Amino acid sequence: MPRIPTPHRSDASPLAPSLRPPEATPVRPKPTPGLRRTTPPLLLSAAALCLIAASTPATPLGIGDRLFPNLGNPGYDVTSYDLDFTYQGANDVPLTTITTINATTTEALDRINLDHARGTISSVEVNATPATFQSADEDLVVTPAKPLRAHAPLRITVRHLSDPVTSEDAQSGWVQTSDGLVMANQADGAHRVFPCNDHPSDKAYFTIRVTAPQGYTAVANGLRLSETRRGTGAATTWVYRTAHPMATELAQVSIGRSTVVRRTGPHGLPVRDVVPTKDLAALEKWLRKTPDQIRWMEKKVGRYPFETYGTLIAEARTGFELETQTLSLFERDLFLRTEIPDWYIESIMVHELAHQWFGDSVTPGTWSDLWLNEGHATWYEALYAEERGERQMEDRMRAAYEKSDSWRATGGPPAVPEPPRPGRKLDIFRPVVYDGSALVLYALREEIGRPAFELLERAWVTTHRDATATTDDFVRLASRVAGRDLHDFFHAWLYDARTPPMPAHPDWRTSAVAPAGTR
């Protein structure tokens, strides 16, 4: 995820104890009035529930993520989302939306919390029966007509408006382009678009329907199932579906006056790029590079993990590029700026491509595990630049080592990043999780040797494909591949306030860190 587009810019038997310090461990939330067990589960009547809902304030919940404690909700596991958007052809008009969530309860519930922060809710049904609902901070709290048993199917249907007008403190969700909309949901923007369990630990399958007026093209994650026009000059409905589970922060919908360019990647992989129609000729130079970049990544870490890939180029100003699953988002101007060398732009394309393995297929269990995403994507970005003969990995890592103590002082160690400031959710995307975390991988390669490191990289994306994984999982697997306990090595590199000595480079030095309160 976010890259500033400028040149400055498991194993069941662990070999070592958990590295995660107490403050970095997700806290299992204590029972609250907003989510209660009922014994027996069908004891209360629907009328009694309505009285309780009216008299008991709705309470926001979360799963206790250290960086985003209010994201996610306990009590259920989402299996799939069905999103149905109707776009009116204007960005100042909310999209009429139906969000359907299929899930399984993990405990008996008389209330269900969903993450939701923007847009009017008109109705909610639980298992095809109308339910009452209230807002509580950034939660939608739903009271079903009957309490829900544990381990039971759960289907929630929410009819609502999805508002693309961005408030001043919102840094993600819908992004307005010159000709429509795209999504940029990382880290916590999905629940500004649709009600959901907005934490990467709860991955699910997605079916996405988009209806838009004549002249617009809609594209979403996964493969297109259908494209239906209702009549001459009428609206068109597109349907897309993912073949692999996906975190909510990786959902993508593009609506614009776009052209979809199709080509074939390795092993017959469908590659489709989505670009503003007026810029198609100027951007083709970059689009045709993607199949070769996929081949390059496959030589490093193995088969591409999804059913399709492509670039989504939007005429918008976000300040970043973003690895939405199967369809990476790029700012149009990145490819049109003549002052940026080609090798740099190509390496940024590889950065987002690498995320399809690291972050999308293997998804972080908590937001403190973000270094596994961004460190790896930065690693392959740098390796690609080195192999193209433009910038040596050692030079880049030595420069990162010099700055590493300063990055840790301002942003926290790689695996214990500082929480974001209020209203600044993108604060977590600091240099320490980019080059600072790639530096950890460089140190690991120096410590265990190139053959073991390359074996580890392939094993990591294979072992945890389509799943979530944590820092502890990475340490266990690295120790197993290396044949020795790497607990102390990783603890120093991931959790210490100061950067450890670089293996095989005793002459490398960090720059002095300015005292607190100085510049």
Walk me through the structure.
The protein is an alpha+beta fold and 519 residues long. The protein is built from 10 helices and 20 strands. The strands form 6 sheets. A 10-stranded mixed β-sheet has the order 3-6-5-4-7-2-1-10-13-12. It has a two-stranded antiparallel sheet with strand order 8-9. A two-stranded antiparallel ribbon has the order 11-14.
Descriptive terms for the model:
alpha+beta; single chain; 519 residues; globular; two-stranded antiparallel ribbon; Immunoglobulin-like; 10 helices; disordered C terminus
The helix tally amounts to 10
The CATH superfamily name of the domain at 36-201 is: tricorn interacting facor f3 domain
Rounded to the nearest angstrom, the radius of gyration is 23 Å
Beta-sheet strand percentage? 15-25%
Give the neighbour order of strands across the main sheet: 3-6-5-4-7-2-1-10-13-12
In helices, the fraction of residues equals 10-25%
Largest sheet: 10 strands, mixed
Overall shape: it is globular
Overall structural class, as computed from helix and strand content, comes to alpha+beta
| CATH fold group of the domain at 36-201 | Immunoglobulin-like
Number of strands: 20
CATH C-level class of the domain at 36-201 is Mainly Beta
Reported CATH architecture of the domain at 36-201: Sandwich
Let me know the average pLDDT. Answer: 88
Termini gap: 28 Å
Q: What is the string of SSEs from the N terminus onward?
A: HEEEEEEEEEEEEEEEEHHEEHEHHHHEHH
> What are the segments in which pLDDT stays under 50 over at least 5 consecutive residues?
4-54, 515-519
